[in-house]
Backbone:
């Protein structure tokens, strides 16, 4: 009996890109996750590199004494107080963030300037044009504004910057590391042609990332000691990722059962 020859495998027409199976991670997704993760980690590294300068400035500010204790203050390193008059107050919005301003006048020989307050505290709420206030300055920074017995910090208080910088750096590090880890995971799925991506797995990883980033940011606000903040952040992230790994294993067993 004559056997018909096996059919030739069909070739992809020239000029037409090969279609990938539905659900397979795209190369653009891998590249996007890699770029975003690298940018976030690089930004965190820059913040950490600038952190020693901010910590040094914060230490100098905390060690500063009132200028009244010195007969001849130099370089503005002491804490000075200046009487001023309120010219106006205002509220602005920038990127959905509300900012509160106070414009003050130190006298005829000095131009009026605007101070950005931290929140709508008791001083800002009580001020009106013509009120007398006290401007608290250190070096070239106005760090606090006083009205009678009330005090309110400004956004330029030196001892707050290191905390914010450390918190942002830790958060960017956590999120950037997750993006890089996700890029490697997507690349392996492309290599193995795996197309099944459980939704629960993605949701769990996203939730764990938010929790780990929140713990890292909280560690920066708990203590101003850098090594202790880093230790707390690492311990918190390790606990979150360990719990995440266990949860993903349980979900995988239930899916294959």
Residues:
């Amino acid at each position: 009996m004559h056997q018909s020859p096996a059919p030739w495998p069909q070739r992809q027409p020239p000029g037409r890109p090969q279609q990938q199976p539905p659900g397979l991670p795209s190369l653009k997704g891998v590249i996007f996750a890699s770029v975003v993760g690298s940018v976030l980690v690089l930004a965190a590294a820059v913040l950490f590199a600038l952190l020693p300068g901010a910590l040094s400035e914060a230490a100098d500010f905390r060690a500063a004494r009132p200028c009244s204790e010195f007969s001849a203050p130099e370089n503005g390193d002491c804490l000075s107080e200046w009487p001023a008059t309120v010219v106006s107050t205002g509220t602005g919005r920038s990127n959905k963030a509300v900012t509160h301003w106070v414009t003050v006048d130190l006298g005829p020989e000095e131009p009026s300037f605007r101070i950005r307050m931290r929140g709508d505290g008791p001083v800002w709420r009580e001020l009106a044009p013509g009120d007398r206030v006290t401007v608290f300055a250190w070096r070239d920074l106005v760090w606090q504004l006083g009205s009678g017995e009330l005090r309110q910090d400004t956004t330029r208080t030196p001892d707050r910057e290191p905390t914010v910088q450390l918190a942002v750096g830790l958060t960017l590090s956590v999120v950037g590391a997750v993006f890089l880890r996700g890029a490697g995971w997507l690349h392996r799925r492309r290599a193995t042609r795996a197309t099944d991506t459980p939704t629960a797995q993605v949701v769990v990883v996203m939730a764990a990332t938010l929790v780990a980033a929140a713990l890292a940011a909280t560690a920066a606000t708990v203590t101003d000691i850098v090594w202790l903040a880093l230790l707390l952040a690492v311990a918190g992230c390790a606990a979150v990722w360990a719990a995440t790994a266990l949860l993903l294993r349980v979900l995988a067993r239930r899916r294959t059962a």
